[in-house]
What we know:
alpha/beta, Spore Coat Polysaccharide Biosynthesis Protein SpsA, Chain A, 2 domains, 9-stranded mixed beta sheet, 44% helix, 18% strand
Amino acid sequence: xxxxxxxxxxxxxxxxxxxxxxxxxxxxxxxxxxxxxxxxxxxxxxxxxxxxxxxxxxxxxxxxxxxxxxxxxxxxxxxxxxxxxxxxxxxxxxxxxxxxxxxxxxxxxxxxxxxxxxxxxxxxxxxxxxxxxxxxxxxxxxxxxxxxxxxxxxxxxxxxxxxxxxxxxxxxxxxxxxxxxxxxxxxxxxxxxxxxxxxxxxxxxxxxxxxxxxxxxxxxxxxxxxxxxxxxxxxxxxxxxxxxxxxxxxxxxxxxxxxxxxxxxxxxxxxxxxxxxxxxxxxxxxxxxxxxxxxxxxxxxxxxxxxxxxxxxxxxxxxxxxxxxxxxxxxxx
Length: 333
């Protein structure tokens, strides 16, 4: 069993955040995988309970007594919860892991050895594989957003024209997942960073609430300080994906996602360009609503959103898109 040192310095602090009861089983599997990992120096594991009742996590607290549980009395958001744990942690390296990840036995040691051997590298991610054992292309690593990529995603070009250059570049669909390489935006679901990077760049921006795009903003800031971010295929992690949002009502999730995207655009592209981007987001909401409605009429899943084609789900999806459209055109997004 892995335990933090009570006398010597900590080499690695692992941080994970749990927000919904449905993540408890995944968290248990994550903690087991950490406990079974190859040793890579003195370690500590911090679990932030993001507004959950402490009684829900009591069995895990007993089973994994070596982990530190940090109960928050409210939902701090992904950025806020990770920031809190980062500031409490003591490791010279800090690894952010989503609770739906399982580290394979040598994944942690591979990441630590890699970053220790390359002082110019500020952060690194491993290979995230799904249930099929294949790399999670388009999620594991991406290019940073550009004016063109935001517009293409807004207009669903990535869905209907996946071979477009802007779509391939943003999703890094041509990336060789068998080769270690520098990347612009490793997934925040699995990201190892140096303590000195946190001290220099700062923690994540908590204005991205409750989730989405805080890791993108952090990567932009990290790179602006000259740090490199890398992908290491030898460090393999199993990743389920979308666990923290699967119990979230669709309209609320969409609103949070696009509000955060709009904030990212304003922060990094300036007001004039961000206005154009938000206009295209509004257009994208009309396209999505039309596809959902047409799919319901034709009894075909044209949107990729409402797979069961139930009337209530169709109505909820369209209402969610039109709410975002209205926020965009009234300059409240």
